[in-house]
Amino acid sequence: MNSNVAKQVSASAGAVDLVPASDFPTLDLDACALLLDIDGTLLDFAPTPREVKVPAGLVPTLSGLLARTSGALALVSGRSLEDIDWIFGPQRFPSVGGHGAEMRLSTDGEAVATHAPPMNPELKRRFAAIADLHSGIVLEDKGYSLALHFRLAPQAEGAIYEAVSRIRADLPNAPIEVLPGKFVCEIKHSGFTKATGVSELMTHEPFKGRRPVFLGDDVTDETVFAIMPDFKGLSFSVGRQAQGVAGEFSGPNEVRRWLAHLLTDS
User: Fold this and answer.
1) Same domain (yes/no): 70, 109
2) pTM to 2 decimals?
């Protein structure tokens, strides 16, 4: 890495100026915890969630950074832990899954629930029926939440959100939350988010006491951006501008190159 353009970000540093992602900031891996969203951050989007591809070299890079941080690397995703393991298998990583509904603290640890109840089956059935509006809508049942992907049918976005609004109007007291994302509408039980999951994660070893560095691309990641100052942490957005971040990456490819630089330069 060109030391003239790299900007050092140490665990003892205070507030930092905006850092262009092209400068490839360096981190003190002995003192940081790396928290990484998956879709749109580590991986490029695919037409459906099951079609994502893991580029060659990414798993070895993540495994190397996991070792280099003494285990303080976690994937933070709306996907379930089961789905995360399917993507990166046979390698497993510490993870926060289901938008904070579940987590695993180590590669060989068991999943730990974060007090997030599964969605009511009847409520889930009603929202699932929205997928019948168009053959291009892909329904994903995550247990704790339900996602309606419309990347294959972007013209169905309005109809999806109208149907969701009608169901919510019928059940104004139902403890549900709607999460709009990139070509996806997700419905989950209220009371847990990626931020609540990350906050819980940071109370456990080996993450406790380290400075979190979070990368995310979507509006659902903004809850984590917002809590990073509470931990003297840093956040970086991917592919979009966001408030309160230390810098921006143009896309997953640049994120992957930066992670590889972190490992080779440490």
Assistant:
1) yes
2) 0.82
